[in-house]
């Protein structure tokens, strides 16, 4: 009878196609939306990701993410370095600055001050420039940070640093090596451009040395945002983090833990993420709703056929098995198609630099969710079949 | 009359109502009826007189409120739903007015359904289904879809489906009402032949006087009761 169930399913091609397409669409939507959301979150902790050699991030005890920070006293660096198990510890400063371009246009940048000695944390500059170029006084490496069209300077020298006010509508070109910027009234020179991991929220970045960052950022009593720690060989990062916390009273997190903290912080505190999550949840709910309703309708529209089976002696268990086979087959085909579609779409999304990241478990989770919705829809639609009065097969009833 | 006088169906004082309170409708008001093996009994009467309710109860599809209904030796009131389903699947065949063939299955696949429900392996079921289709005169078109068959041919497929598992009782609801005269007569010929050949009891609900000639007896119903039972020849 299971073969009959499959033939029933495939016999009505229009309904069958609609059902499979509906499930495929849901599967695609759920997987794509989840991957899109994961992409945002991944960009949220991009600073941590682009420092893969850091084992432990040390910060003010109140800091819960890489997005919202406060600084520590400079003494924190020495205190961390004094702990056994620490192979190296370098400072990192984060700050925001309004940066003026040569035509007077201004743009908010995140300034990332890296250790002067090691330059740890500088992404590889493009066009053959080496990070050591940052050791030139007042130098910066500019990075779009996931933005586009925000690193523009006037094309014509005559429009650069004009007297008598900004020239905002003049032709522009991309920033290049040798261009100057004004950061809090300090002139800096672009010595290189990089393409670090895109940020969420997107923002242009200026990489410079820690000492230069201290000079160009607005004065603060405390400047150091993070201490980046490498563990000595044989020392587990989690153990070292616990030790640093115990000894210094500062917050110390392994890279993975700090990424998780950052994601949690975004989920709890970011209105943007909340809005995105709400929209994605709505889209997924619609998808699930459509799937559930289509499965339910498919079964209920075939009630008369089930009544015929029931009249002929089919047991409730047999009818249930038929419904679940139909649902399982539809869900399997639909999910496969949806995931395939998502894989294709992901290529375009990645090429277009959308925040898209499909984790290994995302298709699995979405498949499980589609299966759950399908099973629930099957269970709901099974009820009218099980309570069906087979006497409806006779006329007049 | 059939080849012997054993009762296939025995109903006594059958009562069945639908709804409750002011909306209560009594469909059967104490029906007494016997159907013998090998007999073709027609049930006739005006619309709403309780014919369909009666065959639904005899077909073990519907439960009576009170009274006794013994079908093929089984007291239906003492059987649970599973036992009734087993009885239907094993010993009762159904022919419906609207044929109720599955549009996505071929004729042979439709006919094989009762066997599949009873657990017969697919190949054996289809083999027996082909024999049943040949027996109703459609041997040349076993693999066509119902939509490719005429009304009469579809009803033949439905009859083959009702016979394929060799039931002892066949319940037919208006089997000829959607067919023209000649086709209806041909269909009844097939049904009657299938009944007589294997000593099956046939109960046919009908409005169609053109087929009364096939009846051994005719039970006339009105207002939930059998008011008269005549033999088929006297109805002509």
Detailed description of the structure:
The complex is a heterodimer of chains A (397) and B (236). Chain A is an alpha+beta fold and 397 residues long. Chain A has helices at residues 2-11, 13-44, 46-49, 75-81, 210-216, 237-248, 255-269, 271-301, 303-311, 316-351, 361-386; strands spanning 56-59, 86-100, 106-114, 139-143, 152-154, 172-174, 180-183, 186-193, 205-209, 226-231, 251-254. Chain A folds into 2 domains: 2-43 and 271-393, no CATH class; 71-224, no CATH class. In chain A, a hairpin with a 2-residue loop joins strand 7 (180-183) and strand 8. In chain B, 33% of the residues lie in helices and 27% in strands. Chain B is built from 7 helices and 10 strands. Chain B has helices at 51-58, 81-91, 107-117, 122-135, 151-163, 181-197, 232-235; strands spanning 7-18, 25-36, 40-44, 66-71, 74-75, 92-95, 169-173, 201-205, 217-222, 225-231. In chain B, the strands form 2 sheets. In chain B, strands 6-7-8-3-9-10 form a 6-stranded mixed sheet, sandwiched between helices. Chain B has a 4-stranded antiparallel sheet with strand order 2-1-4-5, covered by helices on one side. In chain B, strand 9 and strand 10 form a beta hairpin. In chain B, helix 3 crosses helix 4 (122-135) and helix 5 packs parallel to helix 6 (181-197). Chain B starts with 6 loop residues before the first strand and ends with a helix. The A-B interface holds A 1, 3-4, 7-8, 10-12, 304-305, 308-315, 318, 389-391, 393-397 and B 47-48, 52-53, 55-56, 59, 61-62, 82, 85-90, 92, 94, 96-98, 100, 102-105, 109, 113-114, 116-118, 122, 173-174.
CA-atom Rg of chain B in angstroms: 17 Å
Order of helices and strands of chain A: HHHEHEEEEEEEEHEHEHHHHH
How would you sum up the global shape of chain B?
Answer: globular
Number of contiguous helices of chain A: 11
Q: Which structural class is indicated by helix and strand composition of chain B? A: alpha/beta
Record field, number of beta strands of chain A: 11
Helical amount of chain B:
25-40%
Mean pLDDT of chain A: 89
Taken together, the total number of domains of chain B comes to 1
CATH topology of chain B: Rossmann fold
Largest sheet of chain B: 6 strands, mixed
The ordered H/E elements of chain B are EEEHEEHEHHHEHEEEH
Estimate the strand proportion of chain A: 15-25%
Helix and strand content put the structural class of chain A at alpha+beta
Instruction: Please state how the strands of the largest beta sheet of chain A are arranged side by side.
Output: 2-3-9-4-8-7
Query: How many strands of chain B?
Result: 10
Enumerate the spans of chain A where pLDDT stays under 50 for 5 or more consecutive residues. none
Q: Which oligomerization state do the chains in this entry correspond to? A: heterodimer
GO molecular function (chain B): ATP binding; ATP hydrolysis activity; transmembrane transporter activity
Pfam family, one (chain B): ABC_tran
Organism (chain B): Bradyrhizobium centrolobii
Domain ABC transporter (chain B): 9-236
């Amino acid at each position: 009878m299971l073969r009959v169930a499959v033939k029933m399913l495939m016999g009505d091609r229009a309904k069958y196609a609609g059902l499979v397409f509906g499930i495929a669409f849901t599967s695609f939507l759920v997987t794509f939306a989840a991957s899109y959301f994961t992409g945002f979150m991944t960009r949220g902790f991009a600073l941590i990701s682009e420092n893969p050699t850091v084992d432990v991030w040390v910060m003010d005890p109140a800091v819960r993410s890489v997005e919202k920070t406060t600084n520590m006293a400079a003494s924190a660096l020495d205190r961390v370095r004094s702990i056994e198990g620490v192979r190296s510890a370098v400072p990192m400063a984060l700050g925001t600055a309004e940066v003026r371009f040569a035509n007077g246009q201004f743009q908010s940048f995140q300034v990332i001050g890296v250790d002067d000695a090691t330059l740890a944390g500088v992404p590889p500059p493009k066009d053959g420039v080496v990070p050591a170029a940052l050791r030139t006084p007042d130098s910066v490496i500019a990075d779009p940070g996931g933005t586009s069209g925000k690193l523009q300077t006037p094309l014509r020298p005559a429009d650069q640093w004009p007297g008598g006010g900004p020239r905002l509508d003049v032709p522009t070109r991309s920033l290049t090596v040798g261009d100057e910027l004004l950061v809090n009234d300090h002139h800096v020179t672009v010595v290189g451009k990089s393409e670090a991991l895109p940020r969420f929220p997107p923002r242009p970045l200026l990489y410079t040395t820690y000492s230069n960052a201290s000079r160009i950022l607005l004065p603060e009593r405390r400047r150091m945002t993070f201490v980046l720690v490498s563990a000595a060989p044989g020392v587990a990062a989690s153990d070292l983090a616990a030790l640093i916390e115990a000894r210094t009273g500062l917050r110390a997190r392994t890279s993975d833990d700090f990424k998780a903290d950052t994601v949690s912080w975004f989920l709890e505190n970011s209105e943007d993420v909340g809005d995105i999550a709400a929209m994605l949840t709505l889209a997924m709910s619609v998808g699930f709703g459509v799937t559930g309703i289509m499965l339910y309708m498919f079964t209920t529209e075939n009630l008369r056929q089930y009544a015929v089976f029931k009249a002929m002696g089919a047991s409730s268990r047999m009818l249930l098995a038929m419904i679940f086979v139909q649902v399982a087959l539809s869900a399997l085909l639909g999910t496969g198609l949806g995931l395939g579609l998502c894989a294709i779409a992901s290529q375009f999304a990645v090429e277009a630099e959308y925040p898209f990241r499909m984790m290994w478990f995302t298709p699995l989770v979405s498949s499980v969710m589609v299966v759950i919705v399908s099973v629930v829809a099957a269970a709901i639609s099974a009820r009218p079949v099980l309570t069906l009065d087979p006497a409806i097969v006779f006329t007049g009833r | 009359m059939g080849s012997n006088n054993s009762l296939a169906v025995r109903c006594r004082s059958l009562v069945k109502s639908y709804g409750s309170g002011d909306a209560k409708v009594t469909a059967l008001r104490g029906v007494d009826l016997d159907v013998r093996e090998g007999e073709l009994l027609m049930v006739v009467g005006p619309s709403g007189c309780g014919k369909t309710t009666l065959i639904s109860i005899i077909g073990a599809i519907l439960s009576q409120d009170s009274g006794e209904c013994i079908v093929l030796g089984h007291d239906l009131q003492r059987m649970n739903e599973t036992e009734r389903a087993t009885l239907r699947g094993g010993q009762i065949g159904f022919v419906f007015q609207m044929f109720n063939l599955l549009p996505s299955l071929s004729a042979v696949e439709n006919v094989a359904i009762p066997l599949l429900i009873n657990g017969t392996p697919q190949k054996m079921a289809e083999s027996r289904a082909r024999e049943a289709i040949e027996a109703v005169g459609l041997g040349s078109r076993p693999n066509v879809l119902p939509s490719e068959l005429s009304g009469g041919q579809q009803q033949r497929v439905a009859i083959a489906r009702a016979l394929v598992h060799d039931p002892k009782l066949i319940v037919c609801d208006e089997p000829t009402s959607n067919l023209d005269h000649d086709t209806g007569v041909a269909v009844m010929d097939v049904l009657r032949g299938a009944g007589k050949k294997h000593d099956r009891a046939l109960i046919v609900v009908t409005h169609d006087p053109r087929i009364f000639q096939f009846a051994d007896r005719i039970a006339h119903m009105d207002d939930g009761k059998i008011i008269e039972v005549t033999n088929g020849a006297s109805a002509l």
